[in-house]
Amino acid sequence: MAGSLEAAMDNSGDVVTRNGGPGHEVNPLPPITVNNICCIGAGYVGGPTSCVIALQCPHIRVTVVDSNPQRISQWNSETLPVYEPGLSEIVEKCRDRNLFFSSDVSELLNRPI
Questions:
Q1: How far apart are CA 21 and CA 9, in angstroms?
Q2: What are residue 38's DSSP bridge partners?
Q3: In Å, how far are 10, 19, 59, 84, 112 from 6, measured between CA atoms?
Protein backbone atom coordinates (compact mmCIF):
# COMPACT_ATOMS: atom_id res chain seq x y z
CA MET A 1 0.00 0.00 0.00
CA ALA A 2 2.88 2.38 0.70
CA GLY A 3 3.98 2.44 -2.94
CA SER A 4 0.46 2.90 -4.31
CA LEU A 5 0.66 6.68 -4.07
CA GLU A 6 3.72 6.74 -6.31
CA ALA A 7 2.06 4.66 -9.03
CA ALA A 8 0.05 5.89 -11.98
CA MET A 9 -1.30 4.66 -15.28
CA ASP A 10 0.37 5.90 -18.43
CA ASN A 11 -1.61 6.52 -21.63
CA SER A 12 -1.27 2.89 -22.73
CA GLY A 13 -2.87 1.61 -19.53
CA ASP A 14 0.38 0.16 -18.18
CA VAL A 15 1.18 0.69 -14.53
CA VAL A 16 4.07 3.09 -14.01
CA THR A 17 5.78 3.34 -10.64
CA ARG A 18 8.43 5.72 -9.37
CA ASN A 19 9.94 3.47 -6.75
CA GLY A 20 7.58 0.55 -6.28
CA GLY A 21 8.64 -1.86 -9.01
CA PRO A 22 6.66 -4.88 -10.16
CA GLY A 23 3.58 -5.88 -8.22
CA HIS A 24 2.32 -2.38 -7.53
CA GLU A 25 -1.08 -1.79 -9.03
CA VAL A 26 -3.20 1.30 -9.33
CA ASN A 27 -6.89 1.15 -8.51
CA PRO A 28 -8.34 4.05 -10.47
CA LEU A 29 -11.04 6.09 -8.79
CA PRO A 30 -14.55 5.65 -10.13
CA PRO A 31 -15.62 8.42 -12.51
CA ILE A 32 -17.50 11.33 -10.99
CA THR A 33 -19.60 14.03 -12.57
CA VAL A 34 -18.85 17.56 -11.45
CA ASN A 35 -21.80 19.93 -11.71
CA ASN A 36 -20.66 22.75 -9.41
CA ILE A 37 -17.34 24.35 -8.55
CA CYS A 38 -16.93 26.85 -5.74
CA CYS A 39 -13.81 28.98 -5.64
CA ILE A 40 -13.11 30.70 -2.34
CA GLY A 41 -11.33 33.97 -3.04
CA ALA A 42 -12.12 36.43 -5.84
CA GLY A 43 -8.69 38.03 -6.05
CA TYR A 44 -5.97 37.96 -8.69
CA VAL A 45 -5.84 34.14 -8.81
CA GLY A 46 -9.30 32.82 -7.92
CA GLY A 47 -11.31 35.29 -9.98
CA PRO A 48 -9.60 34.92 -13.37
CA THR A 49 -9.04 31.18 -12.93
CA SER A 50 -12.73 30.64 -12.20
CA CYS A 51 -13.69 32.72 -15.23
CA VAL A 52 -11.59 30.54 -17.53
CA ILE A 53 -13.01 27.37 -15.98
CA ALA A 54 -16.52 28.71 -16.63
CA LEU A 55 -15.61 29.53 -20.24
CA GLN A 56 -14.06 26.13 -20.91
CA CYS A 57 -16.71 24.13 -19.02
CA PRO A 58 -20.10 25.66 -19.84
CA HIS A 59 -21.87 22.63 -18.32
CA ILE A 60 -20.41 23.38 -14.86
CA ARG A 61 -21.80 26.07 -12.56
CA VAL A 62 -18.83 28.06 -11.22
CA THR A 63 -19.40 30.24 -8.16
CA VAL A 64 -16.71 32.52 -6.78
CA VAL A 65 -17.14 33.61 -3.17
CA ASP A 66 -15.24 36.21 -1.23
CA SER A 67 -15.73 37.77 2.20
CA ASN A 68 -15.21 41.23 0.67
CA PRO A 69 -18.63 42.37 -0.64
CA GLN A 70 -17.06 45.32 -2.47
CA ARG A 71 -14.87 42.97 -4.51
CA ILE A 72 -17.91 40.82 -5.35
CA SER A 73 -19.81 43.95 -6.41
CA GLN A 74 -16.96 44.79 -8.78
CA TRP A 75 -17.05 41.32 -10.31
CA ASN A 76 -20.79 41.76 -10.81
CA SER A 77 -20.29 45.15 -12.50
CA GLU A 78 -18.64 46.39 -15.66
CA THR A 79 -15.56 47.50 -13.67
CA LEU A 80 -13.72 44.31 -12.73
CA PRO A 81 -11.33 44.39 -9.76
CA VAL A 82 -8.61 42.63 -11.78
CA TYR A 83 -7.23 43.36 -15.24
CA GLU A 84 -6.16 40.58 -17.56
CA PRO A 85 -6.32 40.87 -21.35
CA GLY A 86 -9.63 39.40 -22.55
CA LEU A 87 -10.98 38.83 -19.03
CA SER A 88 -13.87 41.30 -19.32
CA GLU A 89 -15.10 39.54 -22.49
CA ILE A 90 -14.99 36.16 -20.72
CA VAL A 91 -16.90 37.53 -17.72
CA GLU A 92 -19.47 39.17 -19.99
CA LYS A 93 -20.02 35.90 -21.84
CA CYS A 94 -20.25 33.63 -18.76
CA ARG A 95 -21.60 35.78 -15.91
CA ASP A 96 -25.15 34.84 -14.92
CA ARG A 97 -25.03 31.81 -17.24
CA ASN A 98 -22.63 29.48 -15.46
CA LEU A 99 -20.41 32.00 -13.65
CA PHE A 100 -21.61 33.63 -10.44
CA PHE A 101 -20.03 35.84 -7.79
CA SER A 102 -21.25 35.92 -4.19
CA SER A 103 -20.21 37.00 -0.72
CA ASP A 104 -22.63 34.49 0.87
CA VAL A 105 -20.39 31.51 1.63
CA SER A 106 -22.98 29.77 3.82
CA GLU A 107 -25.44 29.55 0.90
CA LEU A 108 -22.96 27.40 -1.01
CA LEU A 109 -22.03 24.98 1.75
CA ASN A 110 -25.08 22.77 1.24
CA ARG A 111 -24.96 22.74 -2.56
CA PRO A 112 -23.93 19.38 -4.09
CA ILE A 113 -20.64 19.23 -5.93
A1: 13
A2: 63
A3: 13, 7, 32, 37, 30
- Give per-residue pLDDT as tens, 37-88: 999 999 999 999 999 999 999 999 999 999 999 999 999 999 999 999 999 9
| Angle at CA of residue 56, ends 55 and 59, nearest 5° | 85
> String of b and e for 29-60 (b: at least 16 CB within 10 Å)?
eeeeeeeebbbebbeeebbbebbebbbeeeee
The secondary element (H helix, E strand) that includes residue 109 is helix 105-109
Residue of 46, 44, 54 whose CA lies nearest to 90: 54
Closest C-alpha among 3, 34, 30 to residue 16:
3
CA-CA distance, 80 to 18, in Å (whole number)? Answer: 45
- SS3 at position 101: strand
Q: What are phi and psi of 82, to 5 degrees?
A: -135, 140
